[in-house]
Amino acid sequence: MKVYRTVRTALKSLMRNPLRAMLTTLGIVIGVGAVIAMMEIGVGSSTAIKNTIASMGANVLLVFPGTAASAGVSFGAGTVVTLTAEDAEAILRECPSVRNAAPVVRARTQVIYGNKNWVPSVMYGTTPAFLDIRDWTELAEGEPFTERDVMAANKVCLLGQTVARELFGDESPVGKEVRVKNVSFRVVGVLSPKGANMMGMDQDDILLAPWTTIKYRVTGSPLQTVTQGSSSSSSTTSSSSSLYPGSGAKLYPERSEAQAASQPMPVRFNNIDQILLAARSAEEIPLAIEEVTLLLRERHRIRPGEPDDFNIRDMTELTRTLSSTTTLMTNMLLWVAMISLVVGGVGIMNIMLVSVTERTREIGLRMAVGARARDVLQQFLTEAVVLCLVGGMVGIALGHGGSKLVSVTMGWPVESSPEAVAAAVGVSAAVGMIFGFYPAWKASKMDPIEALRYE
Amino acid sequence: MMEAGARKAHKDELIKLVGVWKTYRMGELDVHALRDVSLEVARGEFIAIMGASGSGKTTLMNILGCLDRPSSGSYWLDGEEVSRMSADKRAMIRNRKIGFVFQNFNLLPRTSALENVAMPLSYTASHLTEKEARRRAKEVLERVGLGDRLHHEPSQLSGGQQQRVAIARALVNKPPLLLADEPTGNLDSKTGEEVLELFQELNREEGVTVVLVTHDPHVASHAERIIYIHDGQIVEDLPRLHSRSPSLKEVSHEGV
């Protein structure tokens, strides 16, 4: 009742000079409008980024081989040959929070069909699990290759949309043979289109084949020059270890000479370039990392205190990095908006001070008819807060409209954020309180006799 | 004649000033605006306080209106000692016991007559609903003869009508005391006369005690009792003569 009456009185006082009230609150309108628009655009873009990352396969973890180092000189990520396909199988078998795991062997070379040729930006040797991990089980055409193909190192492959288009045009590639480094691969299927990822890389520019085929038939050839990517690094590592003997931890138990003599082991590298994992859920990612780390340390016989010979990257880290970037952007814009709110607040203070001086007689009169100092304080404070709140409301509407306009005209993703609305209302009320207080206090300290005599 | 005033005061006094001094410090000097003023006003009286400018009549009115506190001495209003009250308590006293009428009306601009009159109610009557407050404001406005001007803003009213709105505002809380500071100062003689007649009427019919502060002997002649103040002291305290014209001349000579 009391509050209602005070607010009504304040509104009436403000309505005595509507143009001035409007101009005064313009600063707040713009400030709040800016906050809302920034928040909506910021939240929208960070959601868009999250969706993009989710489309790359949710909860994906990547295990890379570690860094070779010799006498303090490191050779960079992926320079040791530690990961094997068995690691991938063991992870899937023994880590309960891992849903699926696929070994990956990378290659980059030319693919030829008839008189056309193309170099896919991604050529992966893997298992059918890859498709499950990457959320790519729907094929546009044909069938995926199978575990049996992997075990037999069959010469089959799946093509991404871009590769299929470049090599086959309108033709259906299924059942046709393409040549990869003079090895004939039969195309068993065409992947569904996935489009570009958030970095703008074409995800459809891909060729998938059993990892055994890529490893032993394509990149495993002694001609290292045609292969690019990290599989070539194996030679670097082995040569560097012979150059600098006695360095680094031994990864595998030493075989005695007798053992070596009785069971000669042909050297056949079965290292792979990375393992792709999917955790069961986003929450289980840290647990999955822990389990995989433990398992791989055990399998690679790493003593406590020794560094890992692999490293695990998770996409959530990427997600987080990206969303923290957008958060940073949003925060920065928010600060700019806050500054404009403060400027608006100063405007309010200025006009309230003018208004208090102008209405000195009114203040004197109100005091004469029984207003206490605190009633006067309350009245002017309420006026400032009402002004700011009304400005805030208009600002919310304006900001919302603005962000909608941006999303319609420029196609930016926006998402309305109730928190921002609540914050804007709170902040504009606070601005009213803070900047309205001094003028109100000044009004309340007036002497009614002086005030009534004021001309 | 003096006895008449005293007798009335004994009956039921509304205002009682005893040995009131008001001193302002101006640099090194103490300026006495009021010196040892004692005054009693009975309920239902209509008095005028007269004096030249600088005589202390405004100071006296400020003290009577609880806007200011005496430097020494005491002031009982309606049986309450108000001279030692805090500012907030005096605000409450002003709200409930005193109605102010000013020379320049002091109405809120761009605010309807009804709102203007209801304004003091917002500082007391938290028990009054909005509806009741408006009803009461309407009643008082009708009482001062402005029942058809409820929603007019001050700028749409004549001077006399504005002063009537101001009087209605002073009356809205049914105070026992009406303090009017040069209420006709901004009005032409005809409307001034009407306003003064309204005061007389209110005094007679509602029993409101009216204290009129003026320098105009003609205005003062509407009162039943005239108090002359000069150099901060009450120099004369006269009941009004029944026949106006001869005494008025004497009065004006003495007063100015």
What's the structural blueprint in terms of helices and strands?
The complex is a heterodimer of chains A (455) and B (256).
Chain A: H1 2-15, H2 18-55, E1 60-65, E2 69-70, E3 73-74, H3 85-94, E4 98-107, E5 111-113, E6 116-118, E7 122-126, H4 129-133, E8 139-142, H5 147-152, E9 156-159, H6 161-168, E10 177-180, E11 183-191, E12 206-210, H7 211-219, H8 233-243, H9 257-262, E13 274-279, H10 285-299, E14 310-314, H11 315-358, H12 360-368, H13 373-409, H14 418-444, H15 448-453
Parallel strand pairs in A: 7-12, 9-11
Antiparallel strand pairs in A: 1-13, 1-14, 2-3, 4-7, 4-13, 5-6, 5-10, 8-11, 9-12, 10-11
Helix pairs in contact in A: 1-13, 2-11, 2-13, 2-14, 3-10, 11-13, 11-14, 13-14
Chain B: H1 2-11, E1 13-26, E2 29-42, E3 46-50, H2 57-64, E4 72-77, E5 80-81, H3 87-97, E6 98-101, H4 113-118, H5 130-143, H6 159-171, E7 177-181, H7 189-205, E8 209-214, H8 217-220, E9 225-230, E10 233-239, H9 244-255
Parallel strand pairs in B: 3-8, 3-9, 6-7, 7-8
Antiparallel strand pairs in B: 1-2, 1-4, 4-5, 9-10
3D structure, described in words:
The complex is a heterodimer of chains A (455) and B (256). With 455 residues, chain A is of the alpha+beta class. Chain A folds into two domains: 2-53 and 321-453, no CATH class; 81-229 and 269-308, no CATH class. Chain A has 15 helices and 14 strands. In chain A, strand 10 (177-180) and strand 11 (183-191) form a beta hairpin. In chain A, helix 1 packs across helix 13, helix 11 (315-358) crosses helix 13 (373-409) and helix 13 (373-409) packs antiparallel against helix 14. Chain B is an alpha/beta fold. Chain B has one domain: P-loop containing nucleotide triphosphate hydrolases (Rossmann fold). Chain B has nine helices and ten strands. Chain B has helices at 2-11, 57-64, 87-97, 113-118, 130-143, 159-171, 189-205, 217-220, 244-255, and strands at residues 13-26, 29-42, 46-50, 72-77, 80-81, 98-101, 177-181, 209-214, 225-230, 233-239. In chain B, the strands form two sheets. In chain B, strands 6-7-8-3-9-10 form a six-stranded mixed β-sheet, with helices on both faces. A four-stranded antiparallel β-sheet of chain B has the order 2-1-4-5, with helices on both faces. In chain B, a hairpin with a 2-residue loop joins strand 1 and strand 2. The relative contact order of chain B is 0.18. Residues 1-10 and 242-256 of chain B have low confidence and may be disordered. The A-B interface holds A 1-2, 5, 9, 12, 15-17, 361-362, 364-375, 448-449, 452 and B 62, 65, 67-68, 87-88, 91-92, 94-96, 100, 102, 106, 108-111, 115, 119-120, 122-124, 126, 129-130, 169, 173.
